[in-house]
Amino acid sequence: MMYSEKVLDHFSNPRNVGEIEDADGVGEIGNAKCGDIMKMYLKIDKGIITDAKFKTFGCGAAVATSSMATELIKGKSIDDALKLTNQAVVEALDGLPAVKIHCSVLAEQAVRSALSDYYTRQGIDPLPIVGEIKEPEE
Amino acid sequence: MEKRFIYADNAATTAVSEEVLNAMLPHFRTAYGNASSIYKLGRDAQRDIEDAREKVAKALGADPKEIFFTSCGSESDNWAIKGMAEVQEKRGKKHIITSVFEHHAVLHTCEYLEKKGFEVTYIKVNDKGLIDPEDVRNAIREDTALVTIMYANNEIGTIQPIDEIAAICKEKKVIFHTDAVQAVGHVEIDVHKQGIDMLSLSGHKIHAQKGIGVLYIRKGLTLPNLIHGGGQERNKRAGTENVPAIVGLGVAIEAATKNIAEKAAIITPRRNRLIDGMLKLPYTRLNGDRDKRLPGNLNISFEGIEGESLLLMLDLNGICASSGSACTSGSLDPSHVLLSIGLKHEVAHGSLRLSIEEDVTDEDVDYILEVIPKVVERLRSMSPVWEKMMKGEKYA
Model ipTM? Predict the structure, then answer.
């Protein structure tokens, strides 16, 4: 199986690993049984994602997609973050092996899950804005 | 700590040894004859094939006439199982006994036969990764066509009670095949003494090249021809012989089987040091019986981390290893072997297999034991599963 140089770089030097103590939104997706869990922390100020951090249990692609997803949304508006697709993550990593595409979907959903939590904390129903969060199939 | 290169995945494949390569080389450019040709170049090739066959036979305690060269272990397994199934079906026997944690070459062949109307009993293994021979006895029926049980497991290295199983099969007059791909060269095998009817082995696990295997078929047993064509391999498997590979295998098996005890005496203490060193880390477990296992095999689960990440980190540190995680199996499920000994999915995902030989020195063991804790700690520090474990929360 071939990982791109960029995937290996984001795996071996992941960006934004860790937690945000006073996060404004925290999302988690996946389960340990399937072998992938991503937890994402967002700091949001006036609609802008000022910081993003993650913790991931999973394969090289799971770590790399989490890392890339946080990079892609940092400094962006919530609206832009909601437009983040798994394809964008895959492209930014110079591709993923076919069997690893689901990792990029997890990364996309982890961002949405954290944003969903942000709206819930604001007392706003996230569903019309963020939509359904897709849990991976077992 | 200076970075090293350590190959600790000999259960996956091995390097062709120098003596094997040297024995093979003439057969590419000078001694390249077709063994079926009448002139000396051809006769020499025929002689070298028969020499290799004798070496294989000697290493297994078999007669040369019982040795058939194939292209790999999987081919040998397929031929033994499907071939015997075809023979036995004509006698009204359509039941096969195997185990739940066989190599896929056996499991998928059995599943194929199920689709063809055979019934298959999959013997369970205990939490140590061992089969109870009495379970095999109890599974044998009037219509049992074949028992096929692996000699040693490829992931957890556990050595099965082959003598007992073979004896039960003999008593019950059932054919017994064993996939010995992982065992040859690491445990003493004598097919006649042990009462093994068929045995599969592979060259590239014992320092021969990839693409060569053997099926031993006990005298008196007949399998349908595998490949129809010329008269090679006593008409059983047509196709011009791969002379360099066969010659190489002969040299390789002779070398691999001549000093099994001496090799084990070197490897076992190093392997045990690796096991003890890794088990010092919290939330780790050894998979498979500690004693009844191949000398160079260790299989450890590190809870809270995932195997592929672990392998990539080890690779960055120059260590080649293997894992039973889903990500390395190409499916969503982790290794069927680890699940069969009762591991939970999330624990099986974090498994690591090392399979070492004598070339892994004591210094290499020190290095591995320096790298592993750092890598495991790093992956755990970024794992939400580990975080939950430490908080005592449910995580699966």
Answer: 0.93
